[in-house]
Structure prediction request, 553 residues.
Amino acid sequence: MNNKTLEIKQILTLAYENHKKNNLELAESLYKKILIKDPNHIETNYLFGTLILQKKNFDEAIKILNNVIKLNPNHFNAMHNISYALIEKGEYKKAEELLNTVINIKPNHVDAHYNLANIYKHFAEFEKAEKFYKKAIQINPNNAKAFNNLGNILKDLGKFDEAINSYKTAIKLQNNHANAYHNLGNTYKQLGEFKKAKIFFEESLKHNPTNLETLATKIELNKEIIDVKQKKKILSIMEIKNLNNKDIAYGNFLLARYEQQRKNFEKEFDFLLKGHSYYYKWGKKKYEQGVKYWFNTISKNQELMDLGKSHNIGNEQIKPIFIVGVPRCGSTLIEKVIASGKNKISIGEETAIISFFVGQKIVANDPFKNNFKKFKDEIIEKYKSRGLVKEKNNYIFTDKSLDNFFFIGLIKEIFPNAKVINCKRNPLSSIMSILKNNLGDVSWAHDVNHIFKFFDIYHDKINSFKKIHPNFVYEIELEKFVENPEEESKKLMKFCNLKWDTSCLEFYKRKDLTSKTASNIQIRKAIYKDPIEKHLPYKKFFTKYLKEYSWLK
Prediction:
């Protein structure tokens, strides 16, 4: 070993020791010192690139790590770290390709399988995500993080018993896993087992007492009054240094609840806006992409607008019932009513199946009419794989993916015997409910201007389609429905070609009732009338929008 090699080895050892201790500035200067002596030193380039990645300088990290791959084309760890940077930049497809390359080189790379599963979760390809989380667990059976994330996927797929077991395994492996306790609580909440849900939310808070999302969920479930003492506790948590934007958001939502309970509506509204502002910051990259997608890519796609005008014969055997609208419009109630009559049918809730396949076409820049039969067959096959298309149910099922109003023309082409129900509610009631019930992953739901823009697009799309196909969409108004549920539900069931009986209005008695939505608690009760004037204290905050949007008047 010559003097230069020995010196590099000594500096590298010192640099790596400081890197491990998170002394990043010193480690960086030492790595640079080595690279002046030997610019092609592979290990130093790799560690330096990894350090720059830790500092969230993603473009620079990718550049350095790509240099590692030039020096060693099979350096799978450099590829894996580049994929992580690409995910952080929102370049999921490139990351997916790179992770598959890593797995081809090193089939048992546990992190590659885990991160590939995360990508498929992002794309709502839940079956693929399940497969890769399970592979990561097979490689490392002690991976609590993978068990927790697998639980989330199984829950989304409606495999609740498996999801519960997966969360419990995560806790067994790591008994202070606050997220797994929280997710268990959410699962039991979704199943309507509120006593169990409360236990697990409490357990989650024991291990992470500053998690304001868990605290907010527990308070909502228990219908707790936030007193002055609890308000002080929330404020003290919000003052913690480096508290993430998500927790700050939930702190503001809790303070809004405190003011609402005292009818201080202006203060409540201000805290709601602050909460959503912080929540948007927390998921900024994802939400910016989502807003751009819905407002520009989807809403302005001319091909989507033209679908439904042809006389192509779609699948006439399958008769799905699509429930569309905007969030907090009563759609969960309507779906449970439809599915609770004598003709028991599969409840799809929010499948996002059509939206997913449309997204794939758009990303690939592939025209919808190009190989339309294959496109149609893939959509039908996905519904079948979710267990929704059943002969015993006469091939009838519900899909309550509300944004399907963008795709009504496509639905008409694929399922000519489909039923489409447009749920309507007083717009201000829906908007205030969206603000009060944080809709997490809904990208446009965290900014008032975005909310109004989305509502405007919705009204425009529905009205445009109704002009071309006036009898294809059935409209139901929540206020009318709760005022006269028997009469309105009979008309609804007639439109769906389903038999009505009293069990339609007794959906809340079902033991198998589940819901992923913010309406989870309400649907456990008989239909009740929400005060029509409930939104009136907030009307003054929307004066400028009243002038701008005709549908609001």
